[in-house]
Amino acid sequence: MALPAANATVKGYSVPHTLYIYSGVLLTFVVMLAPIARKVAADIREQEEKPWDKVPLNTFSLYWMAGSGTACTGVAAYFWEYLAHG
Questions:
Q1: What predicted TM-score, i.e. pTM, was given to this entire model?
Q2: pLDDT of residue 2 exceeding 60
Q3: Distance in angstroms (rounded) separating the CA atoms of residues 77 and 1
Q4: Which of 7, 34, 75, 76 is the most buried (most CB within 10 A)?
């Protein structure tokens, strides 16, 4: 398997663009999951302990993941212009 930066260079992308995308995706996952990790883990644990009872949907976690993922994508798209023009 080729290195991502080398693979991107072959396809015509610059290394800074590739690193920007990879770091942005990883940071998005951290922003989406870190604040709600305990609650999600508790819900999973509760579901495993009582498989016959359905754990209610935690709407805050759902909205947090959707909202923060959208916000991170928007911020990345906004700063893409600055990266493109150096």
A1: 0.70
A2: no
A3: 28
A4: 76
Structure tokens at 58: 């935690």
For residues 27 and 72, is the Cβ–Cβ distance under 8 A?
yes
Token pair recorded at residue 17:
């663009």
Helix axes 59-84, 15-33, angle to 10 degrees: 160
Q: How far apart are CA 17 and CA 25, in angstroms?
A: 12
Distance CA 52, CA 74 (A): 40
Q: Tell me the C-alpha distance between 44 and 67, whole Å.
A: 22
What backbone torsions phi and psi does residue 71 show, to the nearest 5 degrees?
-65, -45
> Which amino acid does the sequence have at 19?
L
